[in-house]
Amino acid sequence: MTALDDTAPAAAPPRLPAFLHDRIGGFPRTFWILWAGTLLNRLGTMVEPFLGLYLTTTRGLSLGQAGLVMAVLGAGSLVSQLVGGVLADRIGRRATLTAGTVLTGAAMLALGYAQGIVSIVASVLLLGLVLDLYRPASQAMVADIISPAERPRAFALLFWAINLGWAVATILGGTLAQHGFLWLFWIDAITCAGFGVLVWRAVPDSRPEKPRALPGEGGHGAGGFLDALRDRVMVVYVVLGVAYTFVLLQGMTTMALAMKEDGLGPQAYGIAVAANGMIIIVVQPLVAAWLTRRDHSRVLAAGFALVGLGYGLTAFAGSLWSYVGTVLVWTLGEIIAASVIQAVVADLAPPHLRGRYSGLYGMAWSGGFLLAPLGGTQLLAVGAPALWLTCLALGLAAAAGQLALGPAIRRRRVAALTT
Question: What is 219-419's CATH number?
Fold first, then answer.
């Protein structure tokens, strides 16, 4: 066989470029600006993980007062998701994202300098009301600029950036807090505002025009929030999201209390939570491309069930490494579900309502953030097995519900891919 023989088999493409292209190739510049801004924003997210400690030490609040402040923050966040979704559709993604992040930076500084319970509650309420304004706009913008076939991959990349930034922020935040908590508020404020300014200067708005006629399926009308609420598939999807979030967030709320009852202190809890972030950072890029090509409802059902199983196994945990083992199980479930969870919202939403749909689904996370500590602590008071077995039941129920919803989601995805 000569070197000029046309029948010679073509050389296989290098594995690394093919691996990278499957995960990061083909996205427009606008997406990568959003991705970089998201990473920047999360790298500065230092106040939230240490807010309870800050309130009870630097500001001298009681545990009850600190709990009140955290509840006000969660309630404000619930409202901000809705408002952010409406504004994203009305005034545009770019304006909403910029306003939300800049206002969040200002509210961070107000809280950092607030003294006294009244001033602190007022500041944290303001922070809650603007904290998540940008989220629906960011998610809607991704849906606007990325084709339906590529959206799962795009949202998976954002999920990875969020967790990478969060992992770094918690480590740096703990170090900086030793030199004064005010550093955390300033860094958080600067990175929030920096995200908004970056988008304002470098990203064009992507809001689609509102259609004059009613689309076909789903009852999407003139463009009000009620149109999203009339979409039964979306509403059921949000309810399943609340159940899933309630289970998932036990790791950030009640698990520390359960570990304390087993004689494990804050350092042990920190190791367990760090395992969650490290697993996501390492594993998610390896499996995301494969997961996003699978049927979305089956992927979600598998993720929900695995998260429920991981927390169910926590009923048998008693040592640090047994807790870390359960974290491994539910973190794998979180990775699986996160690969397509936001892409389903984008498939369900008509273009002119993407902000509202994203805001509505954001309520599932904000609602779960409120319900997880309230319900979780009540169940833990009954006994740790009651809490963890309830999580198992909710995870399996959410998985079953997602499978039942699957045919309707598949029909809407096919419609999204063909329009």
Answer: 1.20.1250.20
Give the dihedral of Cα atoms 364, 365, 369, 372; nearest 10 deg.
60
Residue 139 tokens read as 């998610």
- The answer to whether domain 28-149+166-203 and domain 219-419 are alike in fold is yes
DSSP state of 221: -
| Fold of the CATH domain 28-149+166-203 | Growth Hormone; Chain: A; (1.20.1250)
pLDDT tens digits along 56-96: 888 888 877 887 888 888 889 889 999 999 999 999 999 99
Cα–Cα distance between 79 and 72 in angstroms, integer?
Answer: 11
Asked if 107 and 123 count as a contact pair (C-beta separation under 8 A), the reply is: yes
CA atoms within 13 A on the CB side of 235: 10
pLDDT tens-digit readout, 189-229? 999 999 999 999 998 888 777 665 444 444 444 567 788 88
